[in-house]
Amino acid sequence: ARTAAATGSAWCRGEAGIALAVLDAPGALDDPHLAAWARGTVEELGRGGPAPDDSLCHGEAGLCELLGHGALPGARPHWLRRAGALLASVEENEARSGAPEGVPHPGLLTGLSGIGHGLLRAGFPERVPSLLLLRTL
Fold first, then answer.
1. How far apart are alpha carbons 63 and 90 in whole angstroms?
2. 95/76 Cα distance (integer angstroms)
3. Residue 115: its H or E element
4. Cystine design at 86: which of 23, 51, 60, 127 (Cβ 3.0–4.6 Å)?
5. Do residues 97 and 112 lie in contact, with contact meaning Cβ atoms separated by under 8 Å?
């Protein structure tokens, strides 16, 4: 069962998605209040416990996308820790999808393809584009 904290950290309906949008918006960090909120949110989510699953939508892969964004290089230690935790989780326990009961499925946002993409982004961020930011290389 997901906790309120875990749901609040989700890319799809929580602070992680909002913070990622702020970090990626041109000029958004020029606003001191918005920048302070984004930095605080990234720090809080970076220090937080494990996500409820490994998915892009509301799991570790989505949080790694936020923590790996280049606008806040100070989040890199959090990104390294969380990306390592994602890899270890998949190696030790198999990928945990975001579907009810963690049922594996091939979906992008809550399924295995998104988790695989998150692992590729963690390993090769300069060569694998962001799906959550709709980027191409």
1. 15
2. 23
3. helix 112-123
4. 60
5. yes
pLDDT in tens, 98-118: 999 999 999 999 999 999 999
Average pLDDT over every residue of 10-23:
92
- Mean pLDDT, the chain, whole residue set: 91
pTM, rounded to two decimals:
0.89
Residue range 34-47, pLDDT digits in tens: 999 999 999 999 99
Q: Which residue in this structure is represented by tokens 């390294």? A: 80
**CA-based nearest residue to 130, from 83, 64, 72, 51:** 64
Reported as a pLDDT band with limits 50, 70 and 90, residue 7 is low
**Contact indicator for 122, 115 with CB cutoff of 8 Å:** no
Judge contact between 83 and 76, C-beta under 8 A: no
* The token pair that represents 38 in the structure block: 């984004």
| Close Cβ partners of 65 (under 8 Å, ≥ 6 residues apart) | 11, 20, 56, 118, 121, 130, 132, 133
Cα–Cα distance measured from residue 39 to residue 25, given in angstroms and rounded to the nearest whole number: 14
